[in-house]
Amino acid sequence: MTVVLVRAILASTLSFLLAFGVAAQDELPRTLFVDVDVFDSESAAVIENANVLVEGNLIARVSIDPIEPNGAVIIDGQGRTLIPGLIDGHNHIMLPTSPLALAYNLHWSYTGALVTREAERMLMRGFTTLRDAGGPSYGIAKAIDEGIVPGPRIFSSGHWIGQTSGHFDFRLYNDTHHRQRTERTAFEREWSFIADGVSEVRAATREVLRLGATQIKISLGGGNSTPYDPLDTTHYSPEEIRAAVEAAEDWNTYVIVHAYTDESVIRALKGGVKSIDHGNMIFEEETIRAIRDAGAILNPQFLIFTPDENMLAAGDPATIEKGAPLRDNVENYVALIKKYDLPIAFGVDLFGAPELMAMQNLEFERRGRWWSGAEVLQQATFNTAKLLEMSGPRNPYQQGPLGVIEAGAYADLILVDGDPVEDINLLVDPEANFLIIMKDGVIYKNTLGG
Questions:
Q1: d(C-alpha 280, C-alpha 4), whole Å
Q2: pLDDT score, position 450
Q3: Domains located in the chain, CATH noted
Q4: Mean pLDDT over each residue of the chain, to the nearest integer
Q5: Strand duo 255-261 + 275-281: pairing
Q6: pTM value > 0.90
């Protein structure tokens, strides 16, 4: 075979492959939503009588002018509201039952089955993205991304990192410290790292990043669900906090902190933390101003601290009793946030039982007591997406932004039967009111047919 002939064959092959690639690109699945009111999450406003074209897994065009379908599947919204997929910025998908049960009583494969079930349920509740706030969610995130099981996108914080006697120290009272044993418990290996001192905190942070976390979660104070860490306590020294932040920054990502009190929040901000979760025992205006001035994002929760009878019946009595100070400060906390017009993210923090996790969408009703429907929707989309963006190159989803309906964004969309801007409680009942649920350009629920 001559060189000329080989070159001719290669040129023909290359031309074929390029043509095939163009043809394949032209054949991306297309979906056209017509006559929808689009919620613009950045401005918290509604674009009326709009049309949205989806090509593949991205939004190709948003326009108030007609869009040629060119073979697209057409979904007539008939004036209903199209919102971005919802984002839960403080989720514990890896805790479908109690931490103690996970540590001592359940086989890992059974836990995996429970988590897989919860992933699909959360997607059907309209949550197309989760920021996992602790737990080894690396595997379920990968399985979802590979299409093995349905579920939301997951930004995994991986193992919690906390100090001895802290919120992430889940030992029973008579359990010895891991330094006094030859082996760690399953929970200490797979769920939570106890790390004391700068070197241990730095090493634990690096290990969690090695395992695949997109951001790091540490605890700076007592928690509601653990028995041996009083709520008023402050955990981790400034040097230990800075060790975690620097190790995360070396990987171009960030640290989330569990922090309730003024002292723990101020200490976190001084250490360079940009994501403050909870804050429900903030009493001082100075703390809210410090969060604002640092450019940090506050991610509070309200449902779990305003429980109804069903939640109280499903909860642990000791946890309920311990959480009284958090519940007592809700109105004051909201007033401080609103006084300084502080943008907040959206997170639910329900875990421990399927019955509790099923209440996820009730967070919308709670926030609707103090904020408008447009503000709550913005919190659960645009604002929380800003948290996700802080993971930089650790963000597994680099093709476009999340939490918005605009050209180039991921096609995570929900068609709501009604107007949630006027009635945020429509989002409380996704089974009845979410007619279309699309994630990554794929429709997972369609009650309209066609």
A1: 75
A2: 57
A3: 29-84+404-446 (2.30.40.10), 86-370 (3.20.20.140)
A4: 92
A5: parallel
A6: yes
